[in-house]
Description:
The protein has helices spanning about 30-35, 40-50, 55-65, 70-90, 100-105, and strands spanning about 10-15, 20.
Amino acid sequence: MNVAETIERVPIHTDAEGAVRVAGTRVTLDTLVAAFDAGATAEEIAQQYSSVPLPDVYSVITYYLRHKAAVSAYLQRRQEQAGTVRAEVERRFPPSDIRERLLARRR
């Protein structure tokens, strides 16, 4: 086998909602990148997310480091989407007086 001819695919895919996940798992690219950026090693990430094999963690981290601008843009979009969803939820279900509302339901 000629090692130079070996092509490995990055084990990530985009789900129906547009989230990038590690193939075969529910773990998002966001999660792995956040753990790595927080200083976790690949081994620590693999231990914390046992559904992601260590070679896949290395592959995803390598992809992130090689495509940092694109991944950062994706993560920024995800944060903006999360903010939009959070604002809509808070508009529909205001967090103010939540304790009182929950206690009233209990009675």
